[in-house]
Amino acid sequence: MKKRNLILTAGLAVVLGTGAAAVSFGGARQIIRIEEGTREVTDMEDGQIVDIEGGQDQVQQLQPNRMWGTVTETHEGGFTFNSQTENGYQGDVVVHIDPEQTLVIDSVTGFPAAQDQIAAGNMIYVYAGPAMTMSLPPQTTAAVVFVNVPEDGSAPLYVTAADSLQDNGQGGYTLTTADGQSIIIPADCPIIPYLTRQMVTLQDITAGRKCMIWLDASGAASNIVLFNQ
């Protein structure tokens, strides 16, 4: 297996290439070295090293990072935007769009949007990574890009369910996501499938299913779109 290094910083995994320096983007930092199927983690604050088996699988389970900001320029195969993410990386990020994997979605309707809506000056939300290169500016590949963001800056969450919904004892449910969020789901919350006509219900949200979730003013789900995979 080819050796790779990662830095984890405030929920961000950064790929270190050969000869690259360890740079902190802020927050807690760890260096992860992956070699021969094991993962060696170094806490940059106390220098402790922990060996973890099956490191490659562990890294692949990391979820995409949520970033937002204004597009500064577009280019073939992607764009650059100025990330203003709170408690995360801030500054220019080069985002690549994989035509086979990246979804460009209207943040109001939840339907696919044309890539030309990713234009300089437009506000966007990006779910990407979790790996970013150590180049300046850093680069990553998007899983989802939300465009047509309302003036209030709201956009749906893109999450993976860690488990089935749990009854919260208050006439609704709690969804725990793979990245550790807990979201209240009212029992009457509307749910539809993404680009299909099949019938889905809240009970179809099971471990590993991906969703778009819009939140109301109280932070509870107001609408859900369930992906097939």
3D structure, described in words:
With 229 residues, the protein is mainly β. It has 1 helix and 19 strands. The strands form 4 sheets. It has a 6-stranded mixed beta sheet with strand order 5-4-3-1-2-11. A 5-stranded mixed β-barrel has the order 6-7-8-12-10.
Quick tags:
229 residues, six-stranded mixed sheet, five-stranded mixed barrel, 19 strands, 3% helix, disordered N terminus
Note the topology.
Elements: E1 4-9, E2 12-16, E3 29-35, E4 38-43, E5 49-53, H1 55-60, E6 65-75, E7 78-84, E8 90-96, E9 103-106, E10 123-128, E11 131-133, E12 139-147, E13 157-160, E14 166-167, E15 172-176, E16 182-186, E17 191-193, E18 210-215, E19 221-226
Parallel strand pairs: 2-11, 8-12, 9-12, 17-19
Antiparallel strand pairs: 1-2, 1-3, 3-4, 4-5, 6-7, 6-10, 7-8, 10-12, 13-18, 14-15, 15-16, 18-19
Helical segment tally?
Answer: 1
Mind describing the biggest β-sheet? 6 strands, mixed
How big a fraction of the residues is strand?
over 45%
**Element order: H for helix, E for strand:** EEEEEHEEEEEEEEEEEEEE
Share of helix, binned: under 10%
Strand order of the largest sheet: 5-4-3-1-2-11
On the 0 to 100 scale, the average pLDDT is: 80
Shape category: globular
Tally of extended strands?
A: 19
SSE class: mainly beta
